[in-house]
Amino acid sequence: MNPNESQLPESKFTRRDFIKTTSSAAIGTTFASVVAATTIAGKSFAAQNNSTLKIALIGCGGRGSGAANQALSADKNLKLVAVADAFSDRMDGCLKSLQKEHGDKVVVPEENRFIGFDAYKKAIALADVVILATPPGFRPIHFEEAVKQGKHVFMEKPVAVDAPGVRRVLAAAAEAKTKNLKVGVGLQRHHQMGYLETMERLHDGAIGDIVAMRCYWNGSGVWVRPRQAGQTEMEYQMRNWYYFNWLCGDHINEQHIHNLDVINWVKNGHPVRCHGMGGRQVRTGIDHGEIFDHHAVEYEYADGSRLFSQCEHIEGVWSSVSEHVIGTKGTCDVSSHIIRGANKWKFDKQGAIDPYQQEHNDLFKAIRTDKPYNEAEYGAHSTMTSIMGRMATYSGKSIEWDEAINSKIDLMPKAFAWDANPPTLPDKNGRYAIAIPGKTITV
Questions:
Q1: Which of left, alpha, beta for 434 (phi over 0: left; psi -120 to 50: alpha)?
Q2: Which residues on adjacent β-strands are paired with residue 218?
Q3: What is the pLDDT of residue 22?
Q4: Taking residues 99-120, what's their average pLDDT?
Q5: What distance in Å separates the CA atoms of residue 78 and residue 103, rounded to the nearest whole number?
Q6: Which of 15, 46, 355, 423 fits 63 for a cystine, CB–CB 3.0-4.6 Å?
Q7: 331/353 Cα distance (integer angstroms)
């Protein structure tokens, strides 16, 4: 469940800030004339503006609060009816913020506010559409349950932290298709006009055959939550979730997935193998858990083209969050939406809707109009691309896609309880074992 990301003031969203001037126009243009028949959570009804869809939020931290805000802004006939979290201290602030923004669209009585490891099941049961925004380790479990109960889903990226989790997501995605359930994944670049127009040109051959790529998520890092008196080991790790692989998957998975996903989109597929290097040189504090602070991975795609990938969490370094490709007839700064060469072009349209908002607009439009909509498969493949990169940097080995996705190494705990042991435990000095390239086994 959600270990409550950054501090969230009552009236401020920390992750997906809603741009009122764009979203209000989008609501009017996207949904005003929708009158099609559809299936919601297994029930057929006329998807007119007076048909209210019920939403459940699983994970009340900053990310979940922001996603719920945008979901409620996507369609005027929605209600948030249930929330679930592992901790109670974030739920009230989340609901107050959403109520202030959306008024009577937020109707969550005390009996619909669920706390604990199994809280998600009860909240899912009350909704038509479910938002999954806990730490990534829980995503396969929650997604399976939502599909089992016949609910439409928006789930944040990444969708897993290990290969068994990816396989569970892919299986649930296939089941969702058979049930006609709509599934969105928080890889919002797929809903950003500049990226969409750039990709269309690249796929139409604007720079010829693409022979090399590079991408980055280099920055100073994120928050740290020190251990508090009285916490069990399970609670400490869930509060400080970014630094434990069973919860986060390392920052190559949690953040760099965005850039790796863009390159998979460019190539219309995932890599076939990779090798790389990484380590833990600067962010070595006792609360930095077990993750690396830098990764550099070279991926190979089926056509032989190579992606050179970097991500790091180190203060004072060169900072870049971007994607670039090289073709036989030119180059493209994908993230800035610029093509150089014979077919030079630059995206210059103004007033595009915030992509964090647009991804929810698109999901609810698909629900209302009963159009096929399932982003789980490419979300799972991009997640696996990130995990495979971690496998390579932790082990120092060349990793093949097939061996990676079929790995039996399961990072999740054997039991979920506050007094249960997480998969990794500290030594007598409070420190955790760190992967050693050349020695650590990852597949």
A1: beta
A2: 312, 320
A3: 36
A4: 97
A5: 12
A6: 15
A7: 27
DSSP 326-353: EETTEEEETTTTEEEETT-EE-----PP
Hey, which CATH number is domain 20-189+356-373, 2.40.50.320, 2.60.120.10, 3.40.50.300, 3.40.50.720? 3.40.50.720
What's the pLDDT at 24? 37
User: Roughly what angle, to the nearest 10 degrees, separates helices 257-267 and 193-203?
Assistant: 30
Q: Which residues pair with 294 in a beta bridge?
A: 279, 312
Inter-residue contact 285 to 341 (CB < 8 Å) = no
C-alpha neighbours within 13 Å on the C-beta side of residue 119: 25
Amino acid at 387: I
Phi-psi region of 131 (alpha: psi -120 to 50; beta: other; left: phi over 0): beta
Segment holding 22, helix H or strand E: helix 20-31
Using DSSP's 3-state secondary structure scheme, residue 233 falls into helix
CA distance linking residue 266 with residue 207, whole number of Å = 12
Alpha-carbon distance of 317 to 299, in angstroms, equals 23
Residue 160 corresponds to which tokens in the numbers above?
A: 């897993």
Domain segments of the chain as ranges: 20-189+356-373, 210-327+382-405
C-alpha triplet 162, 146, 12: angle, nearest 5°: 85
**pLDDT score of 27 more than 70:** no
- Which amino acid, one-letter code, is at 65? S
* CA 121 from centroid of its chain's CA atoms: 20
Which residue type does 423 have? Answer: P
> Domain 210-327+382-405: which topology?
Dihydrodipicolinate Reductase; domain 2 (3.30.360)
Reported as type and span, the H/E element at residue 414 is: none
pLDDT at res. 50: 61
pLDDT in the model for residue 436: 98
pTM, 2 dp: 0.90
263 vs 267: CA distance, rounded Å: 6
265, 190 contact by CB (below 8 A): yes
